[in-house]
């Protein structure tokens, strides 16, 4: 010990019961630990016992050895966690040996001190734990213990890093633990703010447009100037027939770009307008909008599926001036040879659907087939110069590449009309509903500077969950999904628009385009069915929060259940997915083909274009293995030369994949009941 005495740098004292733990260090490394006991003498407190500690054993030493150590030490530190009486006793003892100038009380980590480690902490490095302070390393260990205790032991990666980052930022372990219990601490839940931005664009005056008088007068009654994205489209040849890809955030006015040019061409005798959307609910809503706003100027019809017509009783009229439809509805008309007449404008809304694995190839094929059909329509073509194409999207990761692939002028506008605050908190499935209830109440009780109460869209992953959540919310709320009939959905839309509902609870499948002017979006789950959302889908959904004419800001809450997946086929957990979505870059929009998709689209192209099918395949965005697909179609007896066989025609008219077709044929041969055969296929398309 004599050698160690020569090398002592720091002595640290921490009260343990009636004694003191002594830690002796040199160069930040512990040399040994000991237990010091004091007794009261006529001269004051003095060392009475001194024992070296080695694990659980103790080696008695002479009490004077502590004094020798203290004389050799450069500094003596007394833990602030030591009681006032204990600190006073130590200082009196050191003073008796004229060592008080070396001594100083310091704030230390109580966990480290209890473990025999000297760990000084400062105001900047300390983390509060109950009424005490601990070091950052011990705080991390305690947080991990709390995660395990709360059932979140599998929280790893970005989610765990986020919690640690927040803890060190606010220096309070209890606040982080409360966050794990579902408490809403806005300083902790807030992830970031997507700022409101405004690009400088000179607005185009509506009275300068020189459109058809009927449309010109209608627009002048509504606006003095166009919004920036609309002005950019006009300045880049919108009314000169230029094809355009318009990429701009939700609520920036891009839909009117397609409406203006389409209606102007209709009214000037340059062909009808097709306005195409991915879902039946969107088509119904858009049909109503066209009827209300332009019904006195044009005839409007709707086409929403292979055999499904909107419940509002309106039958499809292929001769209408404006046809609103789903992609599949119009594609079915093409596949079955219906005469669509002279098409002057095609507006493809939500064109980023091109990237979806299950439906992207169908939109890609539809665009190719529709362009071919327009080109083949020789009547009056010279009068209106062919169809104009306008593609709309709020979320495209590769706008320049997509614009070039679609042979369109890119109109990109970065404006965010109102800021969006994004929040993340953690909760299990049952706790989520309690949090949602609190958030919905708080939002509905808040009024914006424009005089509107805050309303919420809650996105979840199943229709059943929609009903479950809406029933448990205290304020008026309603489920909204494609399983509801048309009348019920319209009633929900009306009530929400008139602020009679505090919230709608909907599936992620209806995220795109449904016009609910909400100030708040809550993600009850980050899945669409049994698939995790993509970054693009996530941004599309959160973009529904906040409208410039209604709200001062948008708010988004992502409710994350640690270690949760909704199906055993899902590789990641919800906490991992959350931060991937929040931090991830937007995916590129491009169509990819597997064998089934290539066969389906090639068969559809042969049905529509015959020998021109290869040309239709070549003009599609995705790389279609045409020769292989044709070989398979011949092998399966779906085509005879460049004509579909009767079996092939049935398959393409019903959007069947080869495996589904074989299942049907096999079932028919085995006398299976027709209802059993078609049920799964009809349910598969329920949201189309």
TrEMBL record:
Domain Helicase ATP-binding: 235-414
UniProt entry keywords in alphabetical sequence: ATP-binding, Coiled coil, Helicase, Hydrolase, Nucleotide-binding
Residue ranges of coiled coil: 156-183
Classification via Pfam families: DEAD, Helicase_C
Xref: InterPro entries: DEAD/DEAH_box_helicase_dom, Hel308_SKI2-like, Helicase_ATP-bd, Helicase_C-like, P-loop_NTPase
GO molecular function list: ATP binding; catalytic activity, acting on DNA; helicase activity; hydrolase activity; nucleic acid binding
Residues in Helicase C-terminal domain copies: 434-590
Classification via Gene3D superfamilies: P-loop containing nucleotide triphosphate hydrolases (3.40.50.300)
Full protein name: Helicase
Native species: Natronorubrum thiooxidans
């Amino acid at each position: 010990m004599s050698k160690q005495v020569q090398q002592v740098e720091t002595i640290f004292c921490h009260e343990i019961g009636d004694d003191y733990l002594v830690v002796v260090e040199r160069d930040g490394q512990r040399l040994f630990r000991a237990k010091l006991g004091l007794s009261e003498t006529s001269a004051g407190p003095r060392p009475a016992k001194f024992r070296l500690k080695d694990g659980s054993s103790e080696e008695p030493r002479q009490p004077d050895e502590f004094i020798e150590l203290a004389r050799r030490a450069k500094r003596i530190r007394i833990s602030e966690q030591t009681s006032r009486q204990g600190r006073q006793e130590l200082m009196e003892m050191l003073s008796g040996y004229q060592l008080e100038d070396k001594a100083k009380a310091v704030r230390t980590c109580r966990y480290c001190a209890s473990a025999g480690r000297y760990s000084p902490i400062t105001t900047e490095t300390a983390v509060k734990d109950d009424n005490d302070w601990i070091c950052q390393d011990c705080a991390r260990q305690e947080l991990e213990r709390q995660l395990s205790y709360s059932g979140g032991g599998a929280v790893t990666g970005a989610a765990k890093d986020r919690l640690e980052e927040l803890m060190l930022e606010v220096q309070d372990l209890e606040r982080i633990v409360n966050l794990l219990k579902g408490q809403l601490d806005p300083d902790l839940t807030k992830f970031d703010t997507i700022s409101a931005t405004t690009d400088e664009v000179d607005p185009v005056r509506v009275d300068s447009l020189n459109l058809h008088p009927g449309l010109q007068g209608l627009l002048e009654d509504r606006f003095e100037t166009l919004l920036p994205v609309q002005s950019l489209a006009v300045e880049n040849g919108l009314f000169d027939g230029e094809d355009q890809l318009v990429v701009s955030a939700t609520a920036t006015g891009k839909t009117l770009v397609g409406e203006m040019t389409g209606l102007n061409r209709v009214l000037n005798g340059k062909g009808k307008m097709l306005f195409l959307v991915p879902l039946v609910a969107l088509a119904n809503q858009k049909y109503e909008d066209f009827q209300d706003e332009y019904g006195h100027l044009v005839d409007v019809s709707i086409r929403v599926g292979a055999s499904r017509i909107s419940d509002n009783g309106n039958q499809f009229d292929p001769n209408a001036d404006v046809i609103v439809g789903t992609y599949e509805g119009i594609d079915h008309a093409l596949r079955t040879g219906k005469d669509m007449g002279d098409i002057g404008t095609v507006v493809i809304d939500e064109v980023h659907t091109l990237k979806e694995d299950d439906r992207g190839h169908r939109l890609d094929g539809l665009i190719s087939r529709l362009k071919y059909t327009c080109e083949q329509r020789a009547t009056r073509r010279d009068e209106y110069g062919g169809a104009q194409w306008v593609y709309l999207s709020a979320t495209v990761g590769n706008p320049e590449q997509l614009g070039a692939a679609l042979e369109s002028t890119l109109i990109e506008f970065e404006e965010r009309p109102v800021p969006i605050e994004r929040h993340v908190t953690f909760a299990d499935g049952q706790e989520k509903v309690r949090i949602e209830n609190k958030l919905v109440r708080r939002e509905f009780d808040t009024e914006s500077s424009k005089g509107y109460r805050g309303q919420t869209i809650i996105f979840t992953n199943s229709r059943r969950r929609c009903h479950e959540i809406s029933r448990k919310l205290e304020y008026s709320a309603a489920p909204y999904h494609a399983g509801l009939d048309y009348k019920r959905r319209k009633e929900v839309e009306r009530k929400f628009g008139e602020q009679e509902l505090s919230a709608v609870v909907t599936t992620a499948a209806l995220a795109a385009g449904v016009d609910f002017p909400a100030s708040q979006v809550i993600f009850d789950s980050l899945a669409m069915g049994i698939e995790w959302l993509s970054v693009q889908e996530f941004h599309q959904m959160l973009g529904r929060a906040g409208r410039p004419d209604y709200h001062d800001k948008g708010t988004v809450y992502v409710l994350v259940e640690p270690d949760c997946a909704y199906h055993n086929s899902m590789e990641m957990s919800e906490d991992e997915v959350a931060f991937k979505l929040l931090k991830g870059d937007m995916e590129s929009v491009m169509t990819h083909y597997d064998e089934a998709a290539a066969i389906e689209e090639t068969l559809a192209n042969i049905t529509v274009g015959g020998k021109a099918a290869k040309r239709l395949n070549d003009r599609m965005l995705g790389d279609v293995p045409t020769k292989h697909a044709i070989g398979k179609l011949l092998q399966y007896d779906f085509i005879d030369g460049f004509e579909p066989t009767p079996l092939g025609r049935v398959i393409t008219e019903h959007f069947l994949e080869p495996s589904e077709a074989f299942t049907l044929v096999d079932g028919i041969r085995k006398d299976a009941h027709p209802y059993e055969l078609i049920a799964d296929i009809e349910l598969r398309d329920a949201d189309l």
